Amino acid sequence: MEIVSIERKTFEAMVAKFDRFVSRMDTICQRHGEKTMGEWMDNQDVCRMLNISARTLQTLRDNGTLAYSQINHKTYYRPDDVQRIASVVEDRWKEAKFKGRTI
């Protein structure tokens, strides 16, 4: 283990900058506090809501039909984006049923 020695003045300047950084982050978090992950939906929620398979959901992401965000390898969707494509999925279901297929 290596020990690094710095002057008190330098240490106090570093602590002051860190405190300002923490203060700015707190302000930003408070300003955007209403945007919690509780409002977002995961893959399972979307599949249940739209009555589609995980593979169909992947296709909707791949072709740009459904917007998404990824955090730590987990995919999330905004409920309003899912609502927006619900009619598209329903139309595909009707078309597939008319042709005797499933999606």
Automatic annotation (TrEMBL):
Keyword Amino-acid biosynthesis (UniProt): no
Q: Which Pfam families match?
A: HTH_17
Q: Where is the Helix-turn-helix domain?
A: 40-84
Tell me where on the tree of life, at the top rank, the source sits.
Bacteria
Alphabetically sorted, this entry's keywords are: DNA-binding
Give one GO term, molecular function aspect.
DNA binding
Claim: Coiled coil is one of the keywords in the record: no
The region annotated as signal peptide is none
Q: Where are the transmembrane segments?
A: none
The identity of this protein, by name, is DNA-binding protein
